[in-house]
Amino acid sequence: MFDQVNHLHKQLAGLVDRHTDRDGPQSTGIPSLSFSRYTAPHYFTGTDAPYRINKPSIYFVAQGLKDVIFGEERFRYGPPNYLVASMDLPIIAEVLEASAEVPNLSCRIEFTHSQILELLNDDELKVNFRGKSKRGMNVAKLDLSMLDAVVRLVSLLDKPADIPVLAPLFTKEILYKVLQGEHGDTLRQIVSDESPTIHIQNAIQHIVDHFQDSFQVEDLADIAKMSVPSFYRHFKETTAMSPIQFQKQLRLQEARRQLIFEAVDVAKVAFRVGYESLTQFTREYSRMFGFPPRKDMKRLKGYDGQRVDAAEVSEIPNP
């Protein structure tokens, strides 16, 4: 068993290595599949890679280690694991093990709600759903059968003519295995009317669309069609943050992006993202990123010899 897993990990790493030609995220000939490659440890949030996972996805590290910070929780994963993210989330991510000789290599498989619903038409997959809120992000153990399916999907890049027919089948197989696994409810809950998560998503979307505006928790609870205590509890269970913490993370990461790429002063950016006090903005920015805004800008804009690339800002294809 160990030899089989080791062989498949090496095969997957070799495939990703061969189909990536530079550092950073890269698309592939399979629309739902993307890769990333890093040849040095890398910390990113809102700058050279953005700060959101805004499509449901499954992530696999073929080689190296990665951390994702989600609220106050840290998820570490590598080749023995996979990470599943089921909704729009603000995150901070870090490449921990990477070098020119042994690059950090990973892949991402996007999926849709309709793909989950199609699988859930199978009565066998409905049995274990408990209808409780779960984290929107989880790390689980990657077993041999799922790894084999991932390798078969990625191998299709060497046989482009087979992609239209086989890629949807292999992706469906991978999603099936996630649904059968320890965090299958993470996917079930985003499409089930029985789950409070589907209503929490409406409140999350409202915060994402209006993060610069003030809100009352009562208003968000109304959007989610819940009582305030129930809403607060389910929101924190799902996002690992309170609504205010969630909004703050969105504000600060958007502020960092604007400071880097839009050449505006700190006070103007603080106001744009919803802060009325520059002192409070500076304090909270420093707490999140480890440096006050101006010092952080000098560091990230290349004064330390590492200039960021605005062309890469869209989302994080591979945390």
Automatic annotation (TrEMBL):
Keywords: DNA-binding, Transcription, Transcription regulation. It comes from the Bacteria. Residues 201-299 form the HTH araC/xylS-type domain. InterPro entries: Homeodomain-like_sf, HTH_AraC, HTH_AraC-typ_CS, Tscrpt_reg_HTH_AraC_N. The keyword DNA-binding applies. PANTHER family: ARAC-FAMILY TRANSCRIPTIONAL REGULATOR (PTHR43436), TRANSCRIPTIONAL REGULATORY PROTEIN (PTHR43436:SF1). This is Helix-turn-helix domain-containing protein. It comes from Paenibacillus phytohabitans.
